[in-house]
Specification:
The protein is an alpha+beta fold. The chain contains 14 helices and twelve strands. α3 links the parallel β1 and β2. α2 packs antiparallel against α11 and α7 packs across α14.
């Protein structure tokens, strides 16, 4: 399908957005109950708690009853987290909007053109969020809770990589036993696994496979010939939730970079799937958060960003969103072994290295999978 020119897309989004403003729509609010008193204690240092209290009272005084988050992830992953935020800060709800990397910049363009500001925070994959910052969509601010966040997890004092999404080797227990799983890329490319595995196509919107291949290329764990074999012997299918569904239905035996949250939820429902963490298939993808310029709810936005870097939120990211926080002492999500997490952190590139590498390699990988390299 031919892609519409940017100007046309922008006009279309303007129309839709103005309709949203006219109707006063509040999308994906995640706490049905009206919380009227605090039921969740604050954590962090005394100064951090005092800063959050000040932002909270300023938000309430200013009538900021919501904070709007634009994120590239499914809403159900974050519902429990936002509910806990409202327990800590009664009277403020998180309004969550699932926007793709392209859609979020279109949306911010519209808000800038119309002056009708709706969003407060963005949360996007590593290369996307840094590009958004470079294009001037974000404003700088330093939360007191970021004091212990290592410099590698900051960008321009506009982006804070508060957590990583977790991926591992997913498999159908109906089709393969854990003891026979491949332990590296070379074993995955053996004839026994031909047409038995699936991954998100490189160069696509999710970017998971691109990050995985970039890390393998950097570590010299895969070469150009093996990339061709990966293309020819496996299947470029759905990413994220779609890849887990393929495993759950038994259409594929393996997914080398399966997304932990939907896999773990399906497994807990009794679906015959599981996940292991060999080094070549264990992946941490940083997600960065930042304040949009002229946020609609400035105090509530700063409050949520500050809260995400508290011990309470970092623990909830693991237990509720199955992600791995970047603050010191952040707990592991269920089922992720400490050794695997340590190895993944050692192997991963910095956010800036990842962004630079993806700019170089995504076009090459897309061309290779289209057989034009």
């Amino acid at each position: 399908m031919r892609r519409l020119p940017y100007s046309v897309r922008l006009l279309l989004v303007v129309g839709v957005l103005m309709g949203v403003f006219a109707l006063g729509t509040r999308q994906a609010v995640f706490t049905d109950e009206e919380v009227t008193q605090r039921t969740r204690a604050l954590t962090g240092t005394a100064q951090q708690q005092a800063d959050m209290e000040a932002l909270y009272h300023a938000a309430i005084k200013g009538g900021e009853q919501q904070v709007v988050m634009y994120q590239a992830a499914m809403d159900y992953e974050w519902q429990p987290l936002w509910s806990r935020f409202s327990q800590a800060f009664p009277g403020i709800r998180v309004t969550y909007m699932h926007l793709s990397p392209t859609a979020v910049t279109d949306r911010l363009d519209v808000e800038k053109v119309t002056g009708a500001h709706y969003g407060d925070l963005i949360s996007q994959p590593v290369n996307v969020v840094m590009d958004i910052a470079d294009r001037g969509y974000l404003e700088g601010w330093t939360p007191s809770s970021s004091a212990s966040l290592e410099p590698i997890w900051r960008y321009k004092d506009q982006v804070y990589f508060t957590f990583n999404k977790v991926y591992g080797l997913g498999y159908s227990t109906r089709r393969v036993g854990g003891e026979t799983l491949p332990v590296d890329v070379a074993q995955l490319l053996d004839d026994k696994w031909r047409n038995s595995f699936e991954y998100g196509a490189p160069g696509g919107g999710a970017g998971t496979t691109d990050v995985a291949l970039l890390q393998l290329l950097t570590r010299q764990r895969i070469d150009l010939q093996q990339l061709r074999e990966l293309r020819d012997r496996g299947g470029a299918g759905g990413a994220q939730e779609a890849g887990v569904i393929s495993l759950a239905q038994g259409r594929r035996a393996l997914n080398p970079w399966a997304y932990l949250p939907p896999l773990l939820r399906q497994q807990r429902l009794g679906v015959p799937i599981a996940i292991e963490y060999p080094a070549d298939f264990t992946l941490l993808v940083p997600f960065g958060q930042g304040l949009v310029r002229q946020p609609a709810h400035p105090n509530a936005a700063r409050l949520l960003l500050t809260w995400l870097m508290t011990p309470d939120a970092q623990a909830l990211l693991a237990s509720e969103a199955y992600s791995l926080g970047n603050l010191p002492g952040a707990p592991l999500p269920p089922g992720l072994p400490e050794e695997a997490a340590h190895t993944a952190r050692v192997n991963m590139l910095s956010p800036q290295e990842t962004a630079r590498g993806l700019k170089e390699w995504m076009p090459k990988l897309r061309a290779l999978w289209q057989q034009t390299l």
